[in-house]
Amino acid sequence: xxxFYAGPSIxxxxxxxxxxGRLDEDAPVRSASSVTIDAPAAVVWRLVSDMRDWxxxxxDARVTELGAVEPDARFRWKVRGTPIRSxxxxxxxxxxxxxxxxxxxxxxxxxxxxxAPTADGGTLVTxxxxxxxxxxxxxxxxxxxxxGHEDLLRMLKAAAEG
Length: 162
What we know:
Helices cover 23% and strands 38% of the residues. By secondary structure, the chain is an alpha+beta fold. The protein has a single domain, classed as 2-Layer Sandwich (Alpha-D-Glucose-1,6-Bisphosphate, Chain A, domain 4), CATH 3.30.530. The chain has a 7-stranded antiparallel sheet, sandwiched between helices. Strand 3 (74-79) and strand 4 form a beta hairpin. Helix 2 (41-49) packs across helix 3. The longest helix has 20 residues, at 142-161. The chain is globular, with a radius of gyration of 15 Å. The relative contact order is 0.25.
C-alpha cells in the first residue's frame, strides 16, 4: 500500500537512483514539468547552479549551507520554510543538476533539473522529483509537488529571459 511506502534508504536513492538518472518510480508522490526558456543553457545553468543567489530570483527557496557544487557535496536549504538536508548526485554543467534530500527526518526525495538546448538557441528545462515517506500522501500530493515545480519554472524563465 502506497500510504505506508517508505522507499529505499537515502543512501540507495543517492547511489542507485539519483546518480544513475532515475527517480523512485514507486514513490507515492512524483512530478515532472518542463518549460522552454528563451535563453541559452549557459544562462539557465548559472541561475540554477548558483544556489547562494537563488533568493534573487526564486522566492520560495533559500540555501542555508553550501560548499562546492559537486557530486557527493552536502548542502542545506529551505523550500517554503521546510528545512532540507541534501547531497548533490549529478553536476553536469549546462545539462543536469540532481540531488537527494531528506526533510523532516523521514521524507526522502530525488530532485532532477535537466537542461537541453533547443534548435532556436533556447533551453528546455525539465524538473522531476520523486518523494516518499510513510503517511506522506495524507498531507502532500503529486499535484501539490507539480504546482511547486511549475512555480519554480515560471520564476526561472522570468529570471533567465529578463
